[in-house]
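User: Earlier you gave me the apo prediction for this protein. Now I'd like the version with zinc ion bound, so I can compare the two side by side. Same sequence as before, with the ligand SMILES added.
Assistant: Got it. Here's the input I'm using:
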Amino acid sequence: MARLPPYQFGIWLAEYLYSHCQLCHIQRSMLHASVASACTSSTTKSIFTAFNNGLLCEHCQHSISWLPDPLAVDIASNLALPIQAATFYDYPIRQAFRSFKHSEDITKLPLLIHVLRQLPRPLGCNGSNSVIVPMPTTDNRLRQRGFDPVTILSSYLAKHWQIPLWRGVVRIDSTVSQQGLTRSERLANLDDAFMVTELPPAKRLLLFDDIATTGASLQALARALYGGVDTQYGANTGYDSANTKSYNHSFYAYALAHGSS
Ligand SMILES: [Zn+2]
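And here is the structure of the complex with zinc ion:
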Protein backbone atom coordinates (compact mmCIF):
# COMPACT_ATOMS: atom_id res chain seq x y z
CA MET A 1 0.00 0.00 0.00
CA ALA A 2 1.30 3.45 -0.94
CA ARG A 3 2.33 5.58 2.02
CA LEU A 4 -0.04 8.47 2.69
CA PRO A 5 1.38 11.99 2.65
CA PRO A 6 1.60 13.76 6.04
CA TYR A 7 -1.70 15.20 7.32
CA GLN A 8 -3.66 13.31 4.65
CA PHE A 9 -6.57 12.67 7.00
CA GLY A 10 -6.97 16.40 7.67
CA ILE A 11 -6.85 17.14 3.95
CA TRP A 12 -9.62 14.61 3.32
CA LEU A 13 -11.70 16.33 5.99
CA ALA A 14 -11.05 19.72 4.37
CA GLU A 15 -11.97 18.36 0.94
CA TYR A 16 -15.00 16.24 1.63
CA LEU A 17 -16.52 17.38 4.93
CA TYR A 18 -15.64 21.06 5.35
CA SER A 19 -17.69 22.59 2.58
CA HIS A 20 -16.38 26.15 3.04
CA CYS A 21 -13.83 28.03 0.99
CA GLN A 22 -10.34 27.84 2.48
CA LEU A 23 -9.88 31.59 1.97
CA CYS A 24 -13.14 33.47 2.55
CA HIS A 25 -14.91 30.62 4.39
CA ILE A 26 -18.20 31.05 2.60
CA GLN A 27 -20.04 27.88 1.67
CA ARG A 28 -18.23 26.48 -1.37
CA SER A 29 -21.41 24.94 -2.70
CA MET A 30 -23.20 28.28 -3.23
CA LEU A 31 -22.22 28.79 -6.86
CA HIS A 32 -22.99 25.24 -7.80
CA ALA A 33 -26.24 25.09 -5.89
CA SER A 34 -28.37 24.59 -8.97
CA VAL A 35 -26.42 21.51 -10.07
CA ALA A 36 -26.07 20.19 -6.56
CA SER A 37 -29.79 20.58 -5.96
CA ALA A 38 -30.34 17.75 -8.44
CA CYS A 39 -28.74 15.44 -5.87
CA THR A 40 -31.11 13.98 -3.34
CA SER A 41 -29.22 13.71 -0.04
CA SER A 42 -27.21 16.46 1.66
CA THR A 43 -24.17 14.17 1.94
CA THR A 44 -24.22 13.55 -1.80
CA LYS A 45 -24.53 17.30 -2.38
CA SER A 46 -21.60 18.02 -0.13
CA ILE A 47 -19.39 15.42 -1.83
CA PHE A 48 -20.54 16.52 -5.27
CA THR A 49 -19.71 20.17 -4.69
CA ALA A 50 -16.41 19.38 -2.95
CA PHE A 51 -15.28 17.42 -6.01
CA ASN A 52 -16.32 20.19 -8.38
CA ASN A 53 -15.12 23.31 -6.60
CA GLY A 54 -11.79 22.20 -5.18
CA LEU A 55 -10.93 23.91 -1.93
CA LEU A 56 -11.78 27.49 -2.88
CA CYS A 57 -15.04 29.12 -3.83
CA GLU A 58 -15.33 30.26 -7.41
CA HIS A 59 -14.81 33.92 -6.49
CA CYS A 60 -11.53 33.26 -4.64
CA GLN A 61 -10.39 30.86 -7.35
CA HIS A 62 -10.77 33.62 -9.94
CA SER A 63 -9.24 36.33 -7.76
CA ILE A 64 -5.81 34.65 -7.80
CA SER A 65 -3.44 34.75 -10.79
CA TRP A 66 -2.46 31.18 -11.60
CA LEU A 67 0.52 29.89 -13.54
CA PRO A 68 2.58 33.06 -14.08
CA ASP A 69 5.14 33.09 -16.91
CA PRO A 70 8.03 30.79 -16.02
CA LEU A 71 11.36 32.18 -14.83
CA ALA A 72 14.36 30.93 -16.76
CA VAL A 73 17.81 30.45 -15.24
CA ASP A 74 20.82 28.81 -16.80
CA ILE A 75 22.30 25.48 -15.79
CA ALA A 76 25.08 25.48 -18.37
CA SER A 77 25.91 27.51 -21.45
CA ASN A 78 23.33 25.78 -23.64
CA LEU A 79 20.99 24.50 -21.02
CA ALA A 80 18.24 26.56 -19.38
CA LEU A 81 16.10 25.65 -16.44
CA PRO A 82 12.48 26.85 -16.72
CA ILE A 83 10.89 27.45 -13.32
CA GLN A 84 7.10 27.24 -13.35
CA ALA A 85 5.27 28.44 -10.26
CA ALA A 86 1.64 27.79 -9.46
CA THR A 87 1.07 31.43 -8.56
CA PHE A 88 2.77 34.66 -7.45
CA TYR A 89 4.19 35.03 -3.98
CA ASP A 90 1.60 37.64 -3.03
CA TYR A 91 -1.34 38.02 -0.66
CA PRO A 92 -3.05 35.73 0.31
CA ILE A 93 -0.68 32.89 -0.58
CA ARG A 94 2.32 34.66 0.94
CA GLN A 95 0.65 35.05 4.36
CA ALA A 96 -0.66 31.48 4.32
CA PHE A 97 2.71 30.07 3.38
CA ARG A 98 4.61 32.09 6.01
CA SER A 99 2.22 30.92 8.68
CA PHE A 100 2.70 27.33 7.57
CA LYS A 101 6.47 27.55 7.26
CA HIS A 102 7.32 29.56 10.34
CA SER A 103 4.56 28.54 12.75
CA GLU A 104 3.70 25.09 11.39
CA ASP A 105 0.12 26.30 11.00
CA ILE A 106 -1.34 23.24 9.30
CA THR A 107 -4.75 24.89 8.90
CA LYS A 108 -3.11 26.63 5.93
CA LEU A 109 -2.08 23.33 4.32
CA PRO A 110 -5.34 22.70 2.39
CA LEU A 111 -5.00 26.11 0.70
CA LEU A 112 -1.35 25.43 -0.18
CA ILE A 113 -2.22 22.02 -1.58
CA HIS A 114 -4.98 23.59 -3.63
CA VAL A 115 -2.35 25.99 -5.02
CA LEU A 116 -0.02 23.09 -5.87
CA ARG A 117 -2.81 21.32 -7.71
CA GLN A 118 -2.98 24.21 -10.19
CA LEU A 119 0.32 22.93 -11.61
CA PRO A 120 -0.58 20.59 -14.46
CA ARG A 121 1.50 17.45 -14.76
CA PRO A 122 4.39 18.27 -17.13
CA LEU A 123 3.67 17.15 -20.67
CA GLY A 124 5.01 13.68 -21.43
CA CYS A 125 6.11 13.06 -17.84
CA ASN A 126 4.86 10.04 -15.93
CA GLY A 127 5.83 7.75 -13.08
CA SER A 128 8.14 5.66 -15.21
CA ASN A 129 10.18 8.35 -16.96
CA SER A 130 10.30 11.12 -14.34
CA VAL A 131 11.05 11.79 -10.69
CA ILE A 132 10.37 14.79 -8.49
CA VAL A 133 13.50 16.08 -6.76
CA PRO A 134 12.44 18.04 -3.65
CA MET A 135 14.78 20.81 -2.54
CA PRO A 136 16.80 19.15 0.22
CA THR A 137 17.14 20.78 3.62
CA THR A 138 19.91 20.41 6.17
CA ASP A 139 19.74 18.47 9.43
CA ASN A 140 20.29 21.73 11.34
CA ARG A 141 17.37 23.48 9.70
CA LEU A 142 15.17 20.47 10.21
CA ARG A 143 16.12 20.39 13.88
CA GLN A 144 15.50 24.13 14.33
CA ARG A 145 12.16 24.19 12.53
CA GLY A 146 10.93 20.78 13.60
CA PHE A 147 9.45 20.00 10.20
CA ASP A 148 10.24 20.53 6.56
CA PRO A 149 7.62 22.34 4.44
CA VAL A 150 9.15 21.12 1.15
CA THR A 151 8.91 17.47 2.24
CA ILE A 152 5.22 17.88 3.03
CA LEU A 153 4.31 19.86 -0.08
CA SER A 154 6.35 17.68 -2.44
CA SER A 155 4.61 14.54 -1.20
CA TYR A 156 1.28 16.10 -2.25
CA LEU A 157 2.74 17.10 -5.60
CA ALA A 158 3.89 13.49 -6.09
CA LYS A 159 0.36 12.33 -5.37
CA HIS A 160 -1.18 14.94 -7.66
CA TRP A 161 1.11 14.09 -10.57
CA GLN A 162 1.47 10.37 -9.78
CA ILE A 163 5.24 10.78 -10.12
CA PRO A 164 7.56 9.46 -7.38
CA LEU A 165 9.88 11.54 -5.21
CA TRP A 166 13.61 10.91 -5.44
CA ARG A 167 16.02 12.04 -2.74
CA GLY A 168 19.43 11.41 -4.22
CA VAL A 169 20.84 14.84 -3.33
CA VAL A 170 21.93 16.04 0.09
CA ARG A 171 22.39 19.62 1.22
CA ILE A 172 25.68 20.50 2.84
CA ASP A 173 25.26 22.34 6.12
CA SER A 174 27.83 25.08 5.62
CA THR A 175 25.62 27.55 3.76
CA VAL A 176 23.88 30.36 5.60
CA SER A 177 20.20 31.20 5.17
CA GLN A 178 19.30 32.71 1.79
CA GLN A 179 17.00 35.26 3.35
CA GLY A 180 18.05 38.87 2.80
CA LEU A 181 20.75 38.04 0.24
CA THR A 182 20.92 39.49 -3.28
CA ARG A 183 20.72 37.17 -6.26
CA SER A 184 24.50 37.04 -6.78
CA GLU A 185 25.08 36.56 -3.04
CA ARG A 186 22.55 33.74 -3.07
CA LEU A 187 24.31 32.00 -5.94
CA ALA A 188 27.74 32.39 -4.32
CA ASN A 189 26.32 31.13 -1.03
CA LEU A 190 25.04 28.05 -2.79
CA ASP A 191 28.34 27.04 -4.37
CA ASP A 192 28.92 23.41 -3.39
CA ALA A 193 25.74 23.43 -1.32
CA PHE A 194 24.46 20.15 -2.79
CA MET A 195 25.96 16.73 -3.26
CA VAL A 196 24.50 14.06 -5.52
CA THR A 197 24.64 10.71 -3.75
CA GLU A 198 23.14 8.37 -6.34
CA LEU A 199 22.25 8.12 -9.98
CA PRO A 200 18.73 9.42 -10.78
CA PRO A 201 16.42 6.52 -11.67
CA ALA A 202 14.66 8.47 -14.45
CA LYS A 203 15.63 10.79 -17.28
CA ARG A 204 13.31 13.66 -16.47
CA LEU A 205 14.14 15.50 -13.28
CA LEU A 206 11.36 17.71 -11.94
CA LEU A 207 12.93 19.90 -9.27
CA PHE A 208 10.60 21.32 -6.65
CA ASP A 209 10.99 24.10 -4.10
CA ASP A 210 8.33 25.83 -2.01
CA ILE A 211 9.10 29.45 -2.96
CA ALA A 212 11.42 30.42 -5.81
CA THR A 213 12.35 33.97 -4.79
CA THR A 214 15.06 34.43 -7.43
CA GLY A 215 15.37 30.82 -8.56
CA ALA A 216 18.94 30.66 -7.24
CA SER A 217 18.38 27.59 -5.04
CA LEU A 218 16.73 25.63 -7.86
CA GLN A 219 19.46 26.76 -10.21
CA ALA A 220 22.18 25.54 -7.82
CA LEU A 221 20.37 22.23 -7.31
CA ALA A 222 20.08 21.71 -11.09
CA ARG A 223 23.73 22.61 -11.55
CA ALA A 224 24.74 20.15 -8.85
CA LEU A 225 22.73 17.41 -10.56
CA TYR A 226 24.13 18.34 -13.93
CA GLY A 227 27.73 18.53 -12.73
CA GLY A 228 27.61 16.00 -9.91
CA VAL A 229 26.00 13.23 -11.87
CA ASP A 230 28.31 13.97 -14.74
CA THR A 231 31.50 13.66 -12.73
CA GLN A 232 30.43 10.79 -10.49
CA TYR A 233 28.39 8.72 -12.89
CA GLY A 234 29.42 10.08 -16.30
CA ALA A 235 30.58 6.72 -17.61
CA ASN A 236 27.21 5.16 -16.91
CA THR A 237 25.02 7.88 -18.36
CA GLY A 238 26.75 8.69 -21.62
CA TYR A 239 27.33 12.32 -20.66
CA ASP A 240 29.69 14.40 -22.63
CA SER A 241 31.66 16.14 -19.90
CA ALA A 242 32.71 18.98 -22.24
CA ASN A 243 29.25 20.23 -23.16
CA THR A 244 25.57 19.40 -23.12
CA LYS A 245 25.27 17.65 -26.47
CA SER A 246 24.95 14.08 -25.26
CA TYR A 247 23.46 14.98 -21.94
CA ASN A 248 20.49 12.70 -21.56
CA HIS A 249 18.64 14.05 -18.55
CA SER A 250 16.20 16.92 -18.84
CA PHE A 251 15.49 19.43 -16.10
CA TYR A 252 12.35 21.34 -15.19
CA ALA A 253 11.64 23.19 -11.99
CA TYR A 254 8.42 23.92 -10.15
CA ALA A 255 7.50 25.99 -7.15
CA LEU A 256 4.43 26.82 -5.15
CA ALA A 257 4.99 30.51 -5.85
CA HIS A 258 7.56 32.93 -7.18
CA GLY A 259 8.17 36.65 -7.39
CA SER A 260 5.37 39.13 -7.23
CA SER A 261 2.75 40.25 -9.72
ZN1 LIG B 1 -13.73 32.06 -1.17
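For your comparison, keep in mind: The radius of gyration is 20 Å.
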